[in-house]
Amino acid sequence: MVVKLPAAAPRLMLTMFTHNRCQLCVNAKEALEQVRQQVPFNITEVDIKKPENSKWFEEYKYDVPVIHANDEFLLWHRVNVEDTVSKLQNILKSSGKE
């Protein structure tokens, strides 16, 4: 007998490039919590000011917060909830995970 397991829930992996003195980052985190209520995702934060993240500091020092979804640039500076939900839904559709 073959038992079919349910497909894993669609998941997105977001990465937020940030640092500890970033008020826009605080605002972005709050908005992302609203987004997560509509589109599930995991998120990790990368502190660009840590020595091991110097590559990202050079890339984003004037632009935090920067958000990547599944290792691709998604947005920077401000998170518009409606637009971000739409973008993430499109990523899921195009990856066949919806």
Automatic annotation (TrEMBL):
It comes from the Eukaryota. This is Uncharacterized protein. It comes from Kickxella alabastrina.
